[in-house]
């Protein structure tokens, strides 16, 4: 079952087409990454899923339902622009948002305290938000996002602006959600985060899908035909092997480029028959490389 | 609906807790009491020193001049701190060459009185010349007038052989106003202050609305600006719809307005009773007031929710507040006319212009004049329609405006949001 289905969704702001006939399906129980350069339309798409802005055309279904009111209480959303009431205490902020998300009054206290404990703020429960440090602020923001135990978590650029400790904490929360069978959707332009966390990704550029699918399928589709080798003894015979297109030395290693049809396993077999193989690595393209290749560089960032 | 109430409750509680709110709540009565005390002190206190005033007097009759001089001398005797000295001028029948006028222009004297008339009849008139009078001298000039008048009356009496003291006695008829209470034997002598206070009652009821509106407005704007500046809006919108958020704010802050008005009304009523004034407001009247107050606050906070949502700083809101406040100031400055003629055309027309309706109707009702029930119902109905229209309009602005950071939208953009579905 798909938790989120976007069907030909478009949205323009004046003359700018922010999202252009976008169709995406997010399966249940996965971690799904919306990737793309800045200005690709990620935030607009997530906001439309949250019914914060409405699409010009197309249909959005969340939990199979088109009615936006019903879905809010089952989603935890962390926008790119984050903030909390500065004058309220940490516990009251959590209780307030819990109540807004439709939690029963009786369970508010328990849920607030549980989440304060989970993000390590139990000792600061009665402090006002403005008295908290920036890092604690970020932790409280996660807790607010997840306090109602949502079945779907939508995070817009969740890692931007986080200190390393909180980045780890957020990763833990995401992993925990996945383990509990929940769905997490997040957007990022930091590729290695997506690589580390996502089961599925969609790569968006200028409001349209460039590529989508599971991480493995995308990788294998863009698998480079390159193998990195380290051999004992003479390697002059390499160029004459079937399927080898080019050979270039790279330090102690040798980079071999294969033709499209060739199987790296055949190459390994051929090598083992002739020399001792010290190292054999089929080079996996990183998402970053795929991204740069598809988008054409420039906008990609790796941090 | 539950979410709206949740938002309203938070708005209310957080607004009540702010220092500015508490300060405002306490400051207004303190300031009013202060003004009353200070002004009554000042008006009683005639003894403050003032520099001497010099006036020139040109008088054809030496006899009359002696009377004028006696009149001023007596004043200087009893008011030694506020002396007025006079000097005689040989009047030469007017014209610019008159030495008195010359002296007045040069600043040697602050006023120049010419006492002239038919010497045979003896009925003199007075012409008092001033040259660029200072506001500080206004008070003294009134004294000068009354002193001159007394001198002329004295002179006229003498010429006719009338007894001045007897005349004063004849003219003096003391009238005491006594307010009869509901119970027999309950009587209260009313002095001038009581009468003025009674006249101010309708104004007070209208002013309560105005103060409530101002407080509500300030809280609404600061609440919206805070949410925009702390980037909390989007977090909120993931839990509630823009309309729920706005409706909650409007309800919560209309509640603030009602609280403020209620507290001040109780305080004012207590003060009035303490001063021995009897003001009866019937229960029906209070019912009407509540309806008008509540609708008025809702209308105003909806208006400000729309306006506030397109602004990013409190400073930006100021320029948009001006025209809105103007609508509320019109009834405020014309209260006297409205109170004098509560069923006049002006009052009736204003009653049906929704932003002004609550203030004007409360004023008209509290004057105690008979207003046909149909008129009241019609004004409430029109006000309710106005409230709904304002909420509709504000919701359109709010939905888009609340997410705009940085730049303020142009009027053209705002128009587009309004027609957008």
List the helices and strands and how they pair.
The complex is a heterodimer of chains A (303) and B (421).
Chain A: E1 2-13, E2 16-27, E3 31-35, H1 42-49, E4 57-62, H2 68-71, E5 75-78, H3 90-100, H4 105-118, H5 134-146, E6 152-156, H6 164-179, E7 183-188, H7 191-197, E8 200-205, E9 208-214, H8 215-221, E10 226-231, E11 244-250, E12 253-258, H9 264-274, E13 277-282, H10 287-295
Parallel strand pairs in A: 3-7, 3-8, 5-6, 6-7
Antiparallel strand pairs in A: 1-2, 1-4, 8-9, 10-12, 10-13, 11-12
Chain B: H1 2-17, H2 19-44, E1 53-59, H3 62-78, E2 84-89, H4 99-106, E3 111-117, E4 124-130, H5 138-160, H6 164-171, E5 177-180, E6 187-190, H7 192-229, H8 233-237, H9 242-274, H10 283-309, H11 314-333, H12 335-340, H13 345-351, H14 357-366, H15 373-401, H16 411-419
Parallel strand pairs in B: 1-2, 1-3
Antiparallel strand pairs in B: 3-4, 5-6
Helix pairs in contact in B: 1-9, 3-5, 7-9, 7-10, 7-11, 7-14, 9-10, 9-15, 10-14, 10-15
Structure commentary:
Chain A is of the alpha/beta class. Chain A is built from ten helices and 13 strands. Chain A folds into two domains: 215 residues, P-loop containing nucleotide triphosphate hydrolases (Rossmann fold); 60 residues, Alpha-Beta Plaits (2-Layer Sandwich). In chain A, helix 6 links the parallel strand 6 and strand 7. Chain A starts with a strand and ends in an 8-residue tail after the last helix. With 421 residues, chain B is α/β, with parallel strands linked by helices. Chain B folds into two domains: 116 residues, D-Maltodextrin-Binding Protein, domain 2 (3-Layer(aba) Sandwich), CATH 3.40.190; 227 residues, no CATH class. Helices cover 67% and strands 8% of the residues of chain B. In chain B, the strands form two sheets. A four-stranded mixed sheet of chain B has the order 2-1-3-4, sandwiched between helices. A two-stranded antiparallel sheet of chain B has the order 5-6. The radius of gyration of chain B is 31 Å and the shape is elongated. The interface between A and B is medium-sized, with 30 and 24 residues.
